[in-house]
């Protein structure tokens, strides 16, 4: 296997990851309906994520590779099962925000690694694509970092206040 073949595999991983995340974000957008600013930002990031998949697929094809459809389908099935399980909890928005924050950092790590691999192989178009995607992922991670405390507090405000007994 050559470096370029390995990079194409990683690019396929990134493509599959973006397809899977798109499915999760669709669910999270719906569950954030009581938080319009979060719903709007998730919707925006869903469009960005779909664009990431398209850009990665295009980059794969420009390098002469093909998208591993079976891998994307398996990823999609897993995500659909995960998405259905999480929708039964009242604290879904809090859990979604935590999961999304984790996902953004995973994506940042993946694209940072892919960018380095592309730099070693002098695949300048892939480097540029990774830079564009990284910028969007970092902005979303920053947004989520700001929102997690607010969503957590809002959720906890829905409970009656407990009076401390002094036994804490």
Describe the structure.
- By secondary structure, this protein is mainly alpha-helical.
- 81% of the residues lie in helices and 0% in strands.
- It has five helices and no strands.
- Helix 4 runs antiparallel to helix 5 (124-156).
- The radius of gyration is 19 Å and the shape is elongated.
- The termini are far apart.
Features:
168 residues, mainly alpha, 5 helices, 81% helix, elongated
Task: Itemize the secondary structure elements and their pairings.
Elements: H1 3-31, H2 36-62, H3 69-86, H4 92-120, H5 124-156
Helix pairs in contact: 1-2, 1-3, 1-4, 2-5, 4-5
Summarize the structure in short.
The protein has 168 residues and is mainly alpha-helical. It has helices at 3-31, 36-62, 69-86, 92-120, 124-156.
Helix content: over 70%
Computed over alpha carbons, the radius of gyration is 19 Å
Euclidean distance between termini CA atoms = 60 Å
Average residue pLDDT: 89
Spell the H/E element sequence: HHHHH
What is the overall number of helices?
A: 5
State the major sheet.
Answer: none
Class inferred from helices and paired strands: mainly alpha
Uncertain regions spanning at least 5 consecutive residues:
none
Tell me what portion of residues adopts beta-strand conformation: under 5%
């Amino acid at each position: 296997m050559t470096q370029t073949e390995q990079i194409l595999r990683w690019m396929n991983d990134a493509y599959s990851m973006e397809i899977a995340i798109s499915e999760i974000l669709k669910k999270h957008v719906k569950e954030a309906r009581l938080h319009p600013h979060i719903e709007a930002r998730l919707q925006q990031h869903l469009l960005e994520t779909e664009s990431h998949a398209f850009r990665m697929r295009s980059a794969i094809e420009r390098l002469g590779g093909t998208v591993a459809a079976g891998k994307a389908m398996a990823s999609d099935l897993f995500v659909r099962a995960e998405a259905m399980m999480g929708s039964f909890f009242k604290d879904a928005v809090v859990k979604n925000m935590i999961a999304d924050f984790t996902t953004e950092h995973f994506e940042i790590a993946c694209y940072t690694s892919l960018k380095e691999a592309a730099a070693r192989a002098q695949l300048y178009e892939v480097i540029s694509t990774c830079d564009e995607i990284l910028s969007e992922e970092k902005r979303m991670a920053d947004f989520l970092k700001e929102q997690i405390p607010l969503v957590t507090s809002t959720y906890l405000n829905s409970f009656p206040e407990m009076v401390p007994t002094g036994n804490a």
